[in-house]
Amino acid sequence: MGVQKTIKALSDPIRREILELLKAGRLPAGEISNHFPVSGAAISKHLSILREADLIRDTREGKYIYYELNTSVLEEVMLWISGLKGEKHD
Amino acid sequence: MGVQKTIKALSDPIRREILELLKAGRLPAGEISNHFPVSGAAISKHLSILREADLIRDTREGKYIYYELNTSVLEEVMLWISGLKGEKHD
DNA sequence: CTTTCATTTAACCTTTTGGTTAAATATAGT
DNA sequence: ACTATATTTAACCAAAAGGTTAAATGAAAG
Lengths: 90, 90
Known about the structure:
The structure is a homodimer. By secondary structure, chain A is α+β, with helices and mostly antiparallel strands. Chain A has one domain (3-82): Orthogonal Bundle (Arc Repressor Mutant, subunit A), CATH 1.10.10. Chain A contains 5 helices and 3 strands. The first copy, chain A, has helices at residues 3-10, 13-23, 29-34, 40-52, 74-84; strands at residues 27-28, 56-61, 64-69. In chain A, β2 and β3 (64-69) form a beta hairpin. The first copy, chain A, starts with a helix and ends in a 6-residue tail after the last helix. Chain A binds chain B through residues 3-4, 7-8, 10-11, 13, 16, 19-20, 23, 69, 71, 74, 77-78, 80-81, 83-86, and chain B through 3-4, 7-8, 10-11, 13, 16, 19-20, 23, 69, 71, 74, 77-78, 80-81, 83-86. The structure holds a DNA duplex.
């Protein structure tokens, strides 16, 4: 919980790319992995960091584990940034 | 340049606290340093990372170096996040 | 021009991060 | 039960991050 875990998760470029991939829709881990020049194990760790931060959710379906984006936790980050900018929000 | 450097700079809690401090107005390095339980050298390094990311600007005034917040680069981060959330923006 | 104060830089150390390969786990198909 | 496929976990490693203390720099004051 908290903005710390969220921003930390966002601070790696591969993890941000994963989120961008998932913007288009849910994907199994293997599909995600294919998009990057690192091992499946490395991607699996990135996924678990994103999941810990609740930026993604996973559901097993047979052999595959599908990942999908969860943007709700980004709200907190937006608010923190807005706060810095001295913006009013309702 | 780029959202990467900005988010990386934001990913440390001390650096975020520094930005929050500066929200209230410009402060010399020493004043900033006083708020944290780490050495001045450590704070100096944090300041240089924030400066590299253009999240703060510094101006020397006599013996002191004043730091002030620059929120303009946060716009890009907001846009990136909004993009993930699939939001329309003008 | 030397001393003092504010700050940064250098050298160093420990922990964290992100990667690898190999082994483990889970499910499906034969 | 065995085999193949998808994914994670374990063990390990190199590089990056964040901290420390000590030395260097810059400006002001004696």
